[in-house]
Amino acid sequence: MPRVSLREEREQNNMTNSLTNISLPERMKWFVEARFGLSLHFGLYSIAGRGEWVRSVERLSVEAYQQYFDSFRPDAGCAREWAKAARLAGAKYCVLTAKHHDGFCL
């Protein structure tokens, strides 16, 4: 997918910065009206393909879970690609989980 243009990136930054000046009720109104967004819950467990609680449910040891850590190699531009795909699908917002219950941080 093509990269976001500098103009689009500047617009996104302006929107993010302007949100800090908006009251909570106004932000909540926007969120309810936006209706469609994308939530990305992405981490080591993605490799296992059995859900984000795989380590707990299957009682995997640190050593067993290490194999996922060792092979986790997301593409550097994958987040930008996901954001672009979400925008093209009509999503008004995107939330990325950056720290997981298994202790892994992106």
Total strands: the figure is 2
**Taking strands numbered 1, 2, ... along the chain, how are they ordered across the largest sheet?**
1-2
Task: Please state the average pLDDT score.
Answer: 81
Number of domains: 2
What is the approximate shape?
elongated
Would you give an account of this structure?
This protein is mainly α and 106 residues long. The chain has two domains: 1-35, no CATH class; 36-106, no CATH class. Helix content is 52%, strand content 8%. It contains six helices and two strands; from the N terminus they run ααβααααβ. The chain has a two-stranded parallel ribbon. The radius of gyration is 17 Å and the shape is elongated. The protein starts with 5 loop residues before the first helix and ends in a 10-residue tail after the last strand. The mean pLDDT is 81.
In short:
The protein has helices at residues 6-19, 24-34, 45-48, 54-57, 62-71, 78-89; strands at residues 37-40, 93-96.
What layout of secondary structure does this protein have?
Layout: H1 6-19, H2 24-34, E1 37-40, H3 45-48, H4 54-57, H5 62-71, H6 78-89, E2 93-96
Parallel strand pairs: 1-2
Essential attributes:
6 helices, mainly alpha, 106 residues, single chain, two-stranded parallel sheet, elongated, 2 domains
